[in-house]
Amino acid sequence: EKEMPSKDEL
Amino acid sequence: MNIFRLAGDLSHLAAIIVLLLKIWKTRSCAGISGKSQILFALVFTTRYLDLFTNFISPYNTVMKMIYLGCAYATVYLIYMKFKATYDGNHDTFRAEFLVVPVGGLAFLVNHEFSPLEILWTFSIYLESVAILPQLFMISKTGEAETITTHYLFALGMYRALYLINWIWRYYFENFFDLIAIVAGCVQTILYCDFFYLYITKVLQGKKLSLPA
Where does the chain cross the membrane (chain B) (predicted)? Predict the structure, then answer.
């Protein structure tokens, strides 16, 4: 799975 | 957004509000670790630096501002307004033993070696251990006010719900962030013995007291 920085989370 | 993440955010918001109200209404921060609250304010500050540069949604922006505002308000109440009720003798956990290693780790293990990303990573790692001074203080005093245990339960549940959110996002959105997941696991594990005491004692109507 592509790692995506979870910046849409609080 | 999925139900687990929304429930997690609302649990987090509830914890922050409950703590602020407890201090404000009782005009006392007895039993509350000021160090943990400073660490939480630091967590939000280093994580939400892109508050004004990276718009995601009204919900995201509003929640970040509430978290930041409440965190600083809580620190203000503890160290300024109700300073006389701050129990410094029991809030003795060496927070620098958390901040320094976490800062070093954020430099070494991150997604991208850029200032914003390293600060975000620092905030994720710091959040996972920020509750330690509070848990340490409770172990030292041997007890906690019931309202404080509700605060801790909501705070612990927030990241546990986020773990479920990450499982959900892994399967349905092909989303995966190992740093957040590992830190979230550590954070939730640190609450386990508190969860046990909360469920076996507080929910049975007893006061939370540790075998001193």
Answer: 62-80, 119-139, 151-172, 178-199
